[in-house]
Amino acid sequence: MEKRALAEGWTPSRYLLTLCNEELLWRESEKLRRYKKEARLPVAKTLSEYDFNQVPELNDAQFRQLCETTDWVDAGENVLLFDASGLGKNHLAAAIVDGVVAQGYRARFYSAGELLQESAAETE
């Protein structure tokens, strides 16, 4: 960036402003990378990869809203998914966590088994 600033004749204030903006972008990118790692998401479980035709009674608009908005997070609400095996609950839960993390929130993905194990460990 220094070479570009010199070549284009930037003022010191423009150079510092650009440098600060680059730093802010890098920090935000690193924060999201860290949050994504902390979320412990399973690989390739996004909403765009879920086949809503598999379970026609699911309201895909409601799941999209959970992924794209954070009003429910700000209100301190949780999302629990339960139904028969093999319907993609883990996939949908991971997609919701992925959407929330992408908006700068910390979130953690738990399968039902992990949640029960952690809860049992805390009560011991």
Automatic annotation (TrEMBL):
Entry superkingdom: Bacteria
GO molecular function: ATP binding
Residue ranges constituting the IstB-like ATP-binding domain according to the UniProt record: 10-120
Protein known as: Transposase
